[in-house]
Amino acid sequence: MSDWKKLTCHCGAVELRVKLKDGLNTAQRCNCSFCRRRGAIAATTEYPSGVEVVKGADSLTLYTWGTGAAKHYFCATCGIYTHHRRRSNPNEYSINVAALEGVDPAELGPIKWSDGVNHVSDR
Fold first, then answer.
1. How many structural domains comprise the chain?
2. Please, which residues have CB within 8 angstroms of residue 106's CB and are 6 or more apart in sequence?
């Protein structure tokens, strides 16, 4: 899965081209206060050019909090999380696996969890 993939929000206002770092092998969930509420499966993109906004840059909304290192992007119309700049490594982005064209998260099997509650940046 190292080829470019299409990622869209629900309403179609936002479309990204993404290149995953190691296919869906990096897919994981996080238990931090934000991610556990969001419930998305995230996968790591190649950096710096692993995320390209094809359309809808003006429809993306940014959410950040705490240290401000993580930058979470959503469609302002439908609210779907598309991607984020990672707090653990600001040189990486993660994308919403469920928003990838042709991917059914139910078929992925068990997904690894990362411990965002005890994040290394908080020590």
1. 1
2. none
Asked whether residue 58 is domain-assigned, the answer is yes
Question: For residue 54, is it within any domain?
Answer: yes
CA distance 40 to 99: 10
Structural contact between residues 25 and 12, judged by C-beta atoms closer than 8 angstroms: no
**pLDDT tens-digit readout, 12-43:** 999 999 999 999 999 999 888 888 898 899 99
- Does pTM top 0.85 for this prediction? yes
Inside any domain, residue 117: no
CA 42/CA 114 separation, integer angstroms:
11
The answer to whether the beta carbons of residues 5 and 45 sit under 8 Å apart is: no
